């Protein structure tokens, strides 16, 4: 591995730490370096991950629209070049989170439903049920809440979901 690749890995590690600490502005600055560094020397998965990190920094700064754009870039890279179909799920859900913040429920719904139920966190499944309820699609809402109840087996979501019914 060449020196540049090692430096990029070190910067990526630093960004991960900054994000964990909630230092989004610093992470943002380093992400601009990560995403502008020599893309040809990186795998598609690494390129997509760098855009996801940039999205995480923007999301932490409550820049929903920018975060959505960065996540979309990473998602596009994965859709066109990743060998692992499951690798798109976390990014699709991050784009959905941005869509929810931007009050774009239809886009959020499409993205959340694109992730198979068993790969989708319960909070996203619950969000699907809430959107159906908000849109007046009671039958779909009840079925979605039932999926959450069946899967949660006594977790805190059960109370939340049953209160919503």
TrEMBL record:
It comes from the Eukaryota. It comes from Lotharella globosa. This is ER membrane protein complex subunit 2.
């Amino acid at each position: 591995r060449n020196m540049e690749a090692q430096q990029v890995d070190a910067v990526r590690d630093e960004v991960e730490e900054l994000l964990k600490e909630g230092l989004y502005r610093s992470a943002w600055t380093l992400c601009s370096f990560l995403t502008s560094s020599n893309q040809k020397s990186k795998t598609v998965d690494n390129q997509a991950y760098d855009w996801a990190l940039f999205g995480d920094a923007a999301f932490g700064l409550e820049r929903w629209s920018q975060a959505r754009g960065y996540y979309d870039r990473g998602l596009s890279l994965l859709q066109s070049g990743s060998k692992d179909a499951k690798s798109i799920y976390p990014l699709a859900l991050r784009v959905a989170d941005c869509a929810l913040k931007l009050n774009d429920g239809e886009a959020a719904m499409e993205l959340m439903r694109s992730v198979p139920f068993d790969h989708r966190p319960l909070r996203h499944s619950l969000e699907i049920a809430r959107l159906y309820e908000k849109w007046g699609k009671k039958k779909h809402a009840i079925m979605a809440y039932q999926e959450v109840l069946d899967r949660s087996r006594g977790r805190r979501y059960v109370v939340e979901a049953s209160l919503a019914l």
